[in-house]
Amino acid sequence: MQEIKDRKWWKEGIVYQIYPRSFQDTTGSGVGDLRGIIQRLDYIKSLGVDIIWLNPVYCSPNDDNGYDIADYRGIMPEFGTMEDFDELLAGMKERGLKLVMDLVVNHSSDEHRWFQESRKSRTNPYRDYYHWWPAEKGTPPKRWSYFDVESNAWKYDEQTDSYYLHCFSVKQPDLKWENPAVRKEIHDIMKFWFEKGVDGFRMDVISFISKEIDYPELPAKYNGDFVAYYSNGPELHTYLNEMNTEVLSKYDVMTVGEAPGIGLDKALDFVDADRAELNMFFHFDLMALDRAENEVFLMRQDQWKLTEFKKIHTSWDQVFAEKGWGSMFLNNHDFPRSVSRWGNDTRAHWYNSTTMLQTFLLTMRGTPYFYYGEEIGMTNIKFEQIKDYQDINTLNRYNIIQNEGGDLDAFVENEKSASRDNARTPMQWNEDIHAGFSEGTPWLKVNENYKEGINVLAQENDKTSVLNFFKAMVQVRKDHLGLVYGSYRLLLEDHEEVYAYTRTLGDERFLILLSFSTKKVEIHLDEIDFETAKLLISNDSELLVNTKRTFELTPYQASVYKLS
Ligand code: GLC
Fold first, then answer.
1. How far apart are CA 285 and CA 344, in angstroms?
2. pLDDT at 230 > cutoff 80
3. Does position 402 have pLDDT exceeding 80, yes or no?
4. Is the beta carbon of 167 within 6 A of some atom in ligand 1?
5. What predicted TM-score, i.e. pTM, was given to this entire model?
6. Would you give the DSSP letter of residue 324?
7. Which residue among 15, 328, 373, 449 has the highest number of C-beta atoms inside a 10 angstrom radius?
């Protein structure tokens, strides 16, 4: 076999993301906790995944479910204690699982001690930990906020007659990375967790950390597309490089940055190993595919096209073909469930489309990230009423539309396919009350379809379940390094219903066929002889070879062949 350069555990590993609030409650509080995750470690191990990414578990007033951190070295009491955390980490190590934590350092909570101090006086030693604009200079130049009812990122604070910057909610003031003391604090926090044995960080909105601190007036072009401005701060790469030198280079850890606003042209600046910054990042091109233009949260009226879907993945694969490394995901805690969005969650197509999407993630180059529940095909909950939502983003946007006298019904309809809460409903473990997630009242409603086979227990006992397909497909990836490192070549580029590609490593060659159609589709592949191709896995027992080079795919069928 061909020698592979730069083999790394984080390239070969499969990530399983856990939203702790929704995973397993052991106290009856209705909120998931660390002991719940401990209880489920054997289950996680049984999936065949290697790395757990845990959404924030630090002390937080939960204005944005833990993305507003009040103490970076403390565990949120709702989730448990540091002893629980240590036990969780030990339990993971025992099972050979790695742990990646969430690092949320573009902003802290306004309840963090640093901010409490910072707002006290203009001369406080922590004043310069945050971005302040003195009111005597007039109203600060426009900056946009995601979670503000006026979309205004400046909040007036009476105590010192100044405004502070918050790109997210008023309770999430932006940290001032331009201050070396802030960077030092952050490096120390990272070391604290690495010394405990944590294996890496997912870095929240890391592309936003560097700001122009004279806060210039911005050209109108950024109105509506402010992400392009936020993600291009002048010192961004200086800070990432410094973080690498000071901290990351000293440990065998992985990093994945969340990078809204970063396109293909800037990709390698982050992950080219020679630049010593990050290992991987999440781009947002796919997440924008079905959204209205310049809108992160509004769905497009017309449907997305498979050719566009392929184009995104093909160009991202190409950019990392020689250097860097990709990260593959179809959903997470900020986006709706993958099967409801990219597949088809109706009864007739749910099984095939869920497993087809799993096959896709597990046969592309780039580290695959699965989100809890994806392995059993959890779907969007599609709440009918605004009162069922908890997400700050949905509630804030509702208020904005209400203030503008906009169409609230249309908004609630949109949220059925767009809201982040679709992906945050509790894990469906079995058919007990609240799907076995909690004996109390869950913080967010459980999807009733846990009674219809979308739960772990039922699927563990069913050989033909989504869960068992997932495990088998994970094994296929594990058994074939070519599916991890092999080069990717797109076939049938213009086909609107089938995504077909090969992966090649040395003389090992694979063919992947994925149907995105609700109907049977016939394809012709001149270079493939189906009669000699060896089937490794398919989500459908019906395999329809018409002639040597013509193949029919059933709705949402996925098949992986070994060609040589
Ligand atoms: C990231 C997180 C999201 C959070 C936001 C602010 O996008 O993934 O959940 O609301 O940053 O921290």
1. 21
2. yes
3. yes
4. no
5. 0.97
6. S
7. 373
Rounded to whole angstroms, how far apart are CA atoms 510 and 365? 12
Spacing, Cα 346 to ligand 1 middle (Å): 30
Q: Give the separation between CA 563 and CA 548, rounded to whole angstroms.
A: 14
Protein residue with its CA nearest to atom 3 in ligand 1: 334
The tally of CA atoms less than 13 A away on the side-chain side of residue 315 is: 13
DSSP 211-224: --TT-PPPPGGGTT
What residue owns the CA closest to ligand 1's atom 5?
67
Average of per-residue pLDDT across 157-162? 98
E strand or H helix at 82: helix 82-94
10-to-43, 48, 369 alpha-carbon distances in Å: 21, 14, 11
User: pLDDT tens across 194-225, in order?
Assistant: 999 999 999 999 999 999 999 999 999 998 78
CA distance 444 to 425: 6
Just list the catalytic residues.
Answer: 204, 258
pLDDT tens-digit series, residues 454-494: 999 999 999 999 999 999 999 999 999 999 999 999 999 99
User: Which tens digits make up the pLDDT trace of 237-255?
Assistant: 999 999 999 999 999 999 9
Task: Tell me, in angstroms, the distance from the centre of ligand 1 to residue 391's CA.
Answer: 11
User: Residue 173 carries which DSSP code?
Assistant: P
Question: What is the rounded average pLDDT for all residues in the chain?
Answer: 96
pLDDT at 69 over 80: yes
pLDDT over 90 (residue 544)? no
Contact 467, 376 (CB under 8 A): yes
Contact 201 CB / ligand 1 (< 6 Å): no
**177 — alpha (psi -120 to 50), left (phi > 0) or beta?**
alpha
Ligand 1 within 6 A of CB of 205: yes
> Percent helix, strand and coil across the chain, each rounded to 5?
35, 20, 45
330 within ligand 1 shell (Cβ under 6 A) = no
